[in-house]
Design goal:
The protein is an all-alpha fold. The protein has helices at about 5-15, 20-40, 50-55, 55-75, 80-85, 90-125, 130-160, 165-185, 195, 210-235. Helix 1 (about 5-15) crosses helix 6, helix 4 (about 55-75) packs parallel to helix 7 and helix 4 runs antiparallel to helix 8 (about 165-185).
Length: about 240
């Protein structure tokens, strides 16, 4: 079976599962809502106005991770993967299509989220809002970061073969390791997948990474996770 019909089949799976559609909606709602609250609470001074506008991505990326995890882990319930592989025996091709089917809707929602968040943040901040140039850069970076985090989660879910286990690893990682340990470990923390990608949302990077090099680091994490997931699918029984 060629790429296009397999992609169509995977898209049907996504749009018929309410949990996946809910996760996509949560990306937009969580990011925009928490960003608006952070912008309203920003008091200028040493506050980075650009990151205040996009502060909610810390919550939106949790929804993106949930989407990527659920889209893959559902294949490992009730023998669904065996049925899928009977139609698409080439496991590498199927996983590439699955990753594409995850990336495209998250990228679309992520870009929408970025620009909606930017407009809301500028309206709330008024005269202290960031300029359009860096705001558009951050909005695009927001969409790319959310997409890469969803793919990172998808690759890990293919390795662990369980949505619960994957989220049990990733959610504490984001909420504890990144926020607590990250602030104490100096430059090494800049290379964590979530922190690296969020450099694009800051007016001034304090670490070694810039906006695009930070996203490149997150892309490497996502690529490594997808490679591990593809390897696991090839080596283990369905």
């Amino acid at each position: 079976m060629s790429f296009a019909p397999v992609l169509h089949a995977e898209w049907i799976k996504i749009r018929t599962l309410r949990s996946l559609l809910g996760a996509l909606a949560a990306i937009l709602v969580a990011t925009a809502a928490f960003s608006a609250l952070a912008s309203a609470d920003a008091d200028g001074g040493d506050t980075d106005p650009l990151f205040s506008v996009f502060f909610g991505i810390s919550f939106g990326q949790v929804a993106a991770i949930a989407f990527g995890t659920a889209a893959v882990s559902c294949e490992f319930r009730g023998g669904a993967l065996r049925l899928t592989l009977s139609a698409v025996p080439d496991r590498g091709r199927w996983f590439a299509v699955k990753a594409t089917a995850i990336a495209l809707p998250v990228l679309a929602v992520g870009l929408l989220t970025g620009f909606v968040t930017l407009l809301v943040g500028r309206a709330v901040l008024g005269g202290s809002a960031p300029g359009w140039s860096e705001g558009v850069r951050a909005a695009v970076g927001c969409g790319l970061h959310l997409t890469l985090m969803a793919l990172f989660a998808a690759g890990l879910a293919a390795v662990l073969r369980s949505g619960i286990v994957t989220l049990s690893v990733l959610i504490p990682f984001l909420l504890i390791v990144s926020f607590v340990v990250g602030d104490l470990s100096g430059g090494v923390a800049d290379f964590l997948p979530d922190r690296a990608g969020q450099v694009a949302l800051h007016s001034h990077g304090d670490g070694m990474l810039g906006p695009w090099s930070g996203l490149a680091v997150t892309a490497l994490w996502a690529a490594a996770a997808l490679f591990a997931g593809a390897w696991s699918l090839r080596r283990r029984d369905a």
